[in-house]
Amino acid sequence: MKCLHLRSYSMFSVLAVATQVLVSANLAAKTADTQDLAPQEKVHQIRIPGDILLGGVFPVHTKASHGEDPCGEIAETRGVHRVEAMLYAIDKINEQKDFLRGYKLGALILDSCSNPSYALNQSLEFVRDMIGSSDASSYVCKDNSKPQRRSRDRKNVAAVVGGSYSSVSVQLANLLRLFRIAQVSPASTNSDLSDKNRFEFFARTVPSDDYQAKAMAEIAAKFGWTYVSLVYSADEYGELGADAFKKEARKKGICIAVEERIQNKRKSFIESIDNLVKKLQPEKSVGARVVVLFVGTEYIPQLLHYTTERMKLTTNSENNKKKLIWMASESWDRNNAKYTEGVNQLAAEGAIVLMLASQKVPDFDEYFLNLHPGSDKFERNQWLRELWQVKFKCEFGAPPESSVNRCEDIRQPPEGFNADDKVLYVIDAVYAIAHALQAYKSIACADDAIESHWFSRQSREPEICRAMQSIDGAEFYNNYLLKVNFEDVVGRKFHFSPQGDGPANYTILTYKPKNMHQKNQKMRRELDPVPVAGSTTEPDSEASLASDYIEIGYWSENNLIINEKALWWAGEATPISICSKPCSVGYRKQHIKDEQCCWACSRCEDFEYLVNETHCAPCDMGWWPTKDRTLCYDMSKTKLKYMRWSSMYSIAPAIIAAIGIVLTIFVIVIYILYNETPVVKASGRELSYILLISMIMCYLMTFVLLSKPNIFVCAMKRAGIGFAFSCLYAAMFVKTNRIARIFSMAGRSAQRPMFISPISQLVLTGILAGIQLTGSLIWLWIVPPGSRHDYPRRDQVVLTCNVPDHHFLYSLAYDALLIILCTVYAVKTRKVPENFNETKWIGFAMYTTCVIWLSWIFFFFGTGSDFQVNYFEFSYAC
User: Fold this and answer.
1) Which residue from 212, 208, 205, 85 is spatially nearest to 495, judged by alpha carbons?
2) Alpha carbon of 287 to those of 2, 354, 582: distances in Å?
3) Which keywords accompany this UniProt record (predicted)?
4) CA-based nearest residue to 405, from 415, 414, 396
5) pLDDT at position 536, please?
6) Is 227 within 8 Å of 288 (Cβ atoms)?
């Protein structure tokens, strides 16, 4: 009967043509009736009847390496376990009579054979069912008869669970989006799949690789691994994961030493490994010892094998100390024995592996262990029959008396059984779709009256709700699927991100062979457990000790927890993976050819501090770098220098000055005792007293020079020293001038010279000294006295008076003039009569004074000596 489809005819025509093109471009689908299939044949799909059909795509078989058959060996964990996880979840939902109320979930599960092209071809089954199950009421027959369905069991696929590999999921998503079918992957982490412009109907219960790359970069940063190598496979998973890691690595200041792209071809693969080992073998103390892996599961065993061979790793070999540290993404399959069998164990030892933080589902483990040949749940999944034959090396249908193992008699032993890590994510994917269907049904089928029997839709003819029969994919995905929020089978809260990603939580593992466990068992019992959210097994529990993989930490967004005591280098220095060693204190980095992680170390100046790792800057005057060279500190608070009484430079002048004062006072006392004697009178008592008092003043100036500078001390230095000298040399000048005038006048006239009386001598001395004092007071008024910090050197702060030292020359210039005049008159009076021969001693004193002052000026102002030496010399000059 020919029928015309009145609604969306052109759309379905286009889709049908597109489907035909896809079919012709890919391998022919190999389907078979699962009920009558011979045991030796590979099963490519299974169908579980139900009112609402869920699609499933899983890598039940590996990808064939050669031959016409695209499928290789059966994959127990990643394939069969995940299929059974989906069936387990569907059973649990169907058992809840009030969940979908009147509707039973069914399944159409396909084998992707780990091959994107083959998976796409298989997935056309979903499209065929959709086109073939259009609403019959939308058709009109030419003879006006009622259209009839050709097949009752062909139903729309409401949503698809899968695929596992990102490359497979991308192909599925590109197909399913044409037919507006929602897709939920339990394992694909490709970051591109979060792009809603390209994959508007894709969601997943696992996080994006962007989070995984961020976690790996944070782990590397935590251990100071700033120079790592990157190995990735030549597929979407590897390339996008590598790009995400490089992006996160740049943020953390981590550089990529070697970047190797692993090809699928054997020759290219071996060449890549050779290049990697040649560049990475850590023979030196520095280098990229850590290798980040973003490669497909099937590449890792070969990678480990060839690495062991190229690096010549053997038991107890010295080369083992140089082995690489693998940091692997979640593609590392800890349940795959090929990873660690034989010599691979040597290369794999110490690997750090990220796994999605998945809990065990005890009820699923019990469910799977109860599967046995002959039971309904076993027989509905024909892949179990193939698994039994391969795993237990048995045959179905063998007679009891046969020597061949009978599969019917074999059960899955609980010992050594480890369910796939993604089982929980598969279950969450099914429950997410079911919760979305429940919400969709409550709105779209609010008037649905058949809810008394949960199995009614499968057992009776009445049509199901039209909205449930042909679900609007866009509305279902955006308004219901992405908004689910429920507690999963292990009690975790589950919800999708706005991009359709699952929660980002990772468990961090390290691989330790069992012989290492036995050797270090005592140490591990003392380890502090790492608190891992959602984990039922502590890192140091008996379950962990029995496993070759030790749980060492946990990562969630912005939260990294690692128990370093559980790592293989526990108790030793953390292995380094750097390009250059850190610079010592006081050295800065000079990057080599703009390499962020490679540098040479250049010494900073003693007075410079490190602004950052690459730049030195001088401290301000009076400041000095701290020991770690990160800051400058004020030396005036801790290392301020000035003349201290405890210094030998102060003690020696002070003792000499004190002795001079005592001797001068002794002479004054003698003068007083013999004040009326002719000798004292003849010497000029008045000027002699002024000379002696001036000498005491000069000695006292030594203590002023040695005192800590302040306003009073600085005022005394500027006025007192010059005034003391002026009094001394003014009195001496007046004395020698008096003698010179007396003898000069005596040769020419008997008249008494003027101003030779004691009073006039005192007045002249006072006038001459007053000139000096007046000048000093004017100077103090113009420049008030005070103290300041002086910096003779960058590492020295000296507390001194607030005028430069050479300004003292202005004050002492007048005293120098008096010294010159005294010296001139001392020369003139050198031949006076013997009773006045004191002029000879005055002359000797003046010659000595001139020599001392000249030498002091050169030493004080010309040598730049230490300030203590300068003041020591000045004190002696006084």
Assistant:
1) 205
2) 74, 23, 13
3) Cell membrane, G-protein coupled receptor, Glycoprotein, Membrane, Receptor, Signal, Transducer, Transmembrane, Transmembrane helix
4) 396
5) 38
6) yes
Sequence letter at residue 750:
A
Give 209-359+503-566's CATH code, choosing from 2.40.160.50, 3.40.1050.10, 3.90.1150.200, 3.40.50.2300: 3.40.50.2300
Which pair of structure tokens corresponds to residue 222? 């935590």
If one counts every other C-beta atom within 10 angstroms of the C-beta of residue 678, the result is 8
Angstrom distance (rounded) from CA 486 to CA 493: 6
- Say if residues 739 and 829 touch (Cβ distance below 8 Å): yes
587-638 topology per CATH: Tumor Necrosis Factor Receptor, subunit A; domain 2 (2.10.50)
Return the ∠ at Cα 172 (arms to 91 and 88), rounded to 5°: 10
The domain at 641-877 falls in which architecture? Up-down Bundle (1.20)
CA dist 187 and 381 (Å) reads 21
Residues of the chain with CATH 2.10.50.30: 587-638
Phi, psi of 235 (to 5 degrees): -150, 180
H-assigned helices in 319-372? 344-348, 362-369
Closest CA to 52 of 161, 155, 180: 155
How far lies 280's CA from each of 227, 277, 511, in Å? 11, 5, 21
Q: pLDDT-derived band of residue 535, with 50, 70 and 90 as boundaries?
A: very low
Residues carrying CATH 1.20.1070, the chain: 641-877
Say whether the peptide bond before residue 163 is cis (omega within 30 degrees of 0): yes
Alpha-carbon span 435 to 427, nearest angstrom: 12
d(CA 591, CA 609): 18
C-beta of residue 64 within 8 angstroms of C-beta of residue 362: no
Is 622 in contact with 645 (CB distance < 8 Å)?
A: no
Inform me whether the pLDDT recorded for 672 exceeds 70: yes
Pairing of β 632-634 and β 623-625:
antiparallel
CA dihedral for 454, 459, 460, 466, sign (positive or negative): positive
435: left (phi over 0), alpha (psi -120 to 50) or beta: alpha
Task: Compute the Cα dihedral for 704, 708, 713, 715 and give only its sign.
Answer: positive
Q: What are phi and psi of 257, to 5 degrees?
A: -75, -55
Reported in sequence order, the residue ranges of 241-339 that DSSP labels E, i.e. its strands, are 255-262, 290-294, 325-328
Q: Output Rg (C-alpha) for the chain, integer angstroms.
A: 51
pLDDT of residue 298: 80
194: nearest Cα among 211, 179, 180: 211
- 129 vs 262, residue with greater confidence: 262
Distance CA 765, CA 861 (A): 30
Assigned CATH for 3-206+422-482: 3.40.50.2300
Which stretches of 481-535 are DSSP H helices? 514-519, 521-525
How many CB atoms are located within 10 Å of the residue 172 CB? 29
Residue span(s) of the chain under CATH 3.40.50.2300 come to: 3-206+422-482, 209-359+503-566
**Distance set, CA 496 to CA 355, 426, 468 (Å):** 19, 14, 23
pLDDT single digits (tens) 466-519: 778 788 889 999 999 999 999 999 999 999 999 999 999 999 999 887 655 454
- Residue 557: CB atoms within 10 Å: 12
CA distance 722 to 717: 8
Measured between alpha carbons, how far is residue 529 from residues 13, 405, 418, 792 in Å?
Answer: 61, 45, 22, 60
Give the separation between CA 14 and CA 26, rounded to whole angstroms: 19
pLDDT digits 0-9 by tens, 246-290? 999 999 999 998 888 887 776 777 777 777 777 765 556 678 889
- 3-state SS track over 394-422: CECCCCCCCCCCEHHHCCCCCCCCCCCCC
Q: Could you tell me the two tokens for 94?
A: 């169907």
Element (DSSP H or E) covering residue 268: helix 266-280
| Closest-CA residue to 506 (of 420, 421, 417) | 421
